[in-house]
Amino acid sequence: MITIRDHQTGDLFDPWDHLGGKRRQLLERSWASVFRDYLLEHLPVGELITRFSRQLGRPTKDLHMVLGALILQQLHDLTDAATVEAVAFNITWQYALDIRAESDAYLCERTLRNYRQWLIEKGLDQVLFRSLTDQLIKAVGTDTSKQRLDSTAIQSAMRGLTRLGIIVESISKFLRELRRFHPALHAQVDPDLVRKYVDREGNACFASTKPSESKRRLPEAATDLLALVTQLRGTTALELPSFLILDRVLSEQCEVKNDPEAGPQVRVKEPNEMPCGNVLSPADPDASYNAHRGVGFLVQIMETYSDVEDDPTGTAPPPPPDLITHVAVGPMNVHDGSSLEPALADTDARTIKPEVVLADSHYGSNENLEKAKHQGVDLVSPSMPPKGSKQEKLTLEDFELDEHGLVVRCPQGHVPITTSASADKLQVCFEEATCAACPFHKSCCASAVGRKESRYQYTYDRVRQRLRRLHNHSDEFKERYRWRSGIEGTMSRFKYQMRMASLRIRGRAAVSYASFLRALGLNIHRVAAYKAALE
Predict the structure, then answer these.
(1) H or E element in which residue 325 lies
(2) Measuring CA to CA, how many Å separate 437 from each of 305, 396, 432?
(3) DSSP per residue over 373-421, as a string?
(4) Residues 87 and 185 in one domain
(5) What is the pLDDT of residues 224-271, one digit of tens each?
(6) Distance (Å, rounded) from C-alpha 271 to C-alpha 238?
(7) Which residues contact 169 (CB under 8 A, 6 or more apart)?
(8) 3-state secondary structure (DSSP) of residue 122
(9) What residues contact residue 270 under an 8 Å CB cut-off, 6+ apart?
(10) Total domains present in the chain
(11) Which InterPro entries match (predicted)?
(12) Residue-by-residue DSSP string for 33-52
């Protein structure tokens, strides 16, 4: 049966009067007061009601208390056992959750796990973050017209594996799962495979393979992988998640060719033939790879900011805190630029869409600028450096252009002999003799290969990029863009204060759950600090 306490009606006698003035004051200045006053009564308990009957079954725990405990667990990065202990004995937790009855001061670990699984299955982690963050924004009056966007890499609790290790662990996981759910099919598997990959005893088992021998033994493991997948592909083993991983590893790591005489033959792919989104570990098949950031997941975060300087005298009241408004977890091999539109759509649906967004150059493509402008958002983002600038080559930014984008003069002051413009590109030509005598001849973008004159062609989009790059050096742009660096501090607190850099979980769903609730926890900490500064 459903149990929901009334957390709005006050008591005739204060249940926390026994704490005394000092301890009560500490509670009211802490995160517990923020959670109790602003969030507890707004928890979306109605989303869980459909799982229970109003007449039948044992009484549930107070749904406000259970949802609150799950949020506080992520806020403090506690294990299930530590969370149960905190609910039972921690006065701060009991004050935050408004636990008044003895029966509500206990929560078993299994109940905690069940509710957490329900939240993940129904996507309520996103609902909790969005609804409660919006409530905090209203409570403290945070201005959402100015926001900034960035991303950070998060790694789940998975072990790094070599290519041989990925195949070996995938086969081992599948054979163990097959033995558990389909013992009849497991009995048909070659006992030598079970010995090598599960028991890992005797000769030729991969557990004793030295790193220097890994490359040599990789084709042997690939052959075993192909034989296992071929044998069980048409059976009920297809229902096992580990078989899907096994089949995916085979397609990503190997190339299978059918020989009319010898049958299917397997070839191990070269590293440059493999995709970035390949399975890195059967323990976490959702994780992906990025050459710059490593392995794991990419978390997009957008937060509010204020461009008002701090009062040097310290007499003015503190401004409302910056709060995280948007969180999204995705694969590591997706470019940041594709995350701007979903962030704007999310905040627009909640009526907190910004008017100005600061972001780094990965978000600042011309296409994103047009999309943001179409939605009434001013995207302030520097353009990527021009190709060749790091090699000290001349680029379009070094030439003088007229208002139509045509070249008027080169960096050495030479005037072109002809300029032209078509529907999709522009062109400039210089005298070959003049260019040959120029000191920048080798680094110039104009070329005379197979022609009598030096020619340089560029697009209208390139002209717009040139204007942006020149504007990036202006004082106006630098003054607006300097506030973007503040989100780096948010990323640091998100990863280290909220302990996202040392997760104990695996899988995209679990990482998303932790990301949403710990971002909410960081917002709670910031509002608590703001309330303390007001006193």
Answers:
(1) strand 324-331
(2) 53, 20, 9
(3) HHTT-EEE-PPPPPTTTTTT---GGGSEE-TTS-EEE-TT-PPPSEEEE
(4) no
(5) 999 999 999 889 999 999 999 999 999 999 998 887 776 788 899 998
(6) 28
(7) 161, 281, 282, 283
(8) helix
(9) none
(10) 4
(11) Tnp_DDE_dom, Transposase_InsH_N
(12) HHIIIIIGGG--GGGTGGGS
Q: Round to whole Å and give the CA distance between 3 and 22.
A: 34
Please report the pLDDT score of residue 486 as a whole number: 94
Is the sign of the CA dihedral 264, 266, 269, 274 positive or negative? positive
- Examine the domain organization and report whether 222 and 262 are in the same domain: yes
Cα(50)–Cα(45) distance, integer angstroms: 10
Identify each DSSP E strand in 161-287 by its residue range.
Answer: 254-259, 263-268
- Strand pairing report for 356-359 and 378-380: parallel
| CB of 297 closer than 8 Å to CB of 183 | no
CATH number at residue 512: 3.30.420.10
Average pLDDT per block of 10 residues along the chain, 535 residues long: 59 73 89 95 85 64 89 96 95 92 87 93 94 96 96 92 90 94 93 88 73 81 91 90 94 86 82 86 91 90 92 81 97 93 96 96 92 95 85 87 91 91 91 88 80 87 89 92 95 95 93 97 97 88
Beta-carbon neighbour count of residue 244 at 10 Å? Answer: 13
Residues 169 and 65 in one domain: no
| pLDDT, position 7 | 60
How far is the C-alpha of 372 from the C-alpha of 364, rounded, in Å? Answer: 10
Residue 482 sits in the same domain as residue 366: yes
Is the domain of 320 the same as that of 261? no
69 in the same domain as 184: no
pLDDT of residue 1: 45
Q: Is residue 258 helix, strand or coil?
A: strand
C-alpha dist (Å) from residue 395 to 400, 423, 429, 460: 11, 22, 15, 15
Q: How far is CA 366 from CA 60, 372, 378, 382, in A?
A: 54, 10, 13, 11
Give the single-character DSSP code of 307. -
What dihedral angle (degrees, nearest 10) is formed by the CA atoms of 455, 459, 464, 465?
A: -70
* pLDDT at res. 104: 82
Q: Which residue has the tokens 């607006």?
A: 480
What's the CA gap between 231 and 249, in Å, rounded?
Answer: 16
For residue 459, the cross-strand partners are 425
Amino acid type, 439: P
Give me the domain span that covers residue 39.
Answer: 17-122
Q: What separation in angstroms does the CA of 32 have from each of 72, 97, 115?
A: 9, 8, 22
User: How far, in Å, are 99, 342, 449, 462 from residue 396 at the CA level?
Assistant: 67, 33, 19, 8
Tell whether 518 and 378 lie within a shared domain.
yes
State the DSSP string of 440-486.
TTTT-S-B-TTSSEEEEEEEHHHHHHHHHHHHHTSHHHHHHHGGGGH
The 3 state secondary structure assigned to 63-105 is HHHHHHHHHHHHHHCCCHHHHHHHHHHCHHHHHHCCCCCHHHH
Whether 415 is covered by a domain: the verdict is yes
The residue assigned the tokens 């960081």 is: 522
Given this model, what pLDDT does residue 490 score? 96
